[in-house]
Amino acid sequence: MPDAMRQHLSQFVATRRGVEAWVEQPTSFNKPSLLLVAADGESTRRGIPSVAYGYDFAARHDLPCYDAGVVPYPKRMREYGLRAKRARQ
Q1: Which residues contact 19 (CB under 8 A, 6 or more apart)?
Q2: Is pLDDT larger for residue 64 or for residue 5?
Q3: What is the number of domains present in the chain?
Q4: pLDDT band for position 13 (50/70/90)?
Q5: C-alpha distances in angstroms, 51 versus 4, 21, 23, 74?
Q6: Which domain holds residue 15?
Q7: d(CA 45, CA 43)
Q8: Which of 43, 42, 60, 41 is nearest to 1 (CA)?
Q9: DSSP 3-state assignment of 70?
Q10: Distances in Å between the alpha carbon of 54 and those of 29, 71, 82?
Q11: Residues 48 and 58 sit within 8 Å (Cβ to Cβ)
């Protein structure tokens, strides 16, 4: 993984509280990705080299980690997006 991507994900974890991780499996259109969601619903997503890398990243940062195909994204993430959209309008 490029250093900038790794640094972005690590910085997100270090500067937010209550971060959880969702590993997204690759599809025919997208490579695997890692979604990080903070306690307030703020999130970031980045492509990763492999699914194993996502689980390893979460373990190294002591984050709860879920398979996005099994565990749905948290409601707080959608609510954060709606609040941000309203604030921009």
Answers
A1: 12, 13, 36, 37, 38, 39, 61, 63
A2: 64
A3: 1
A4: very high
A5: 19, 12, 7, 20
A6: 3-88
A7: 7
A8: 60
A9: coil
A10: 18, 15, 27
A11: no
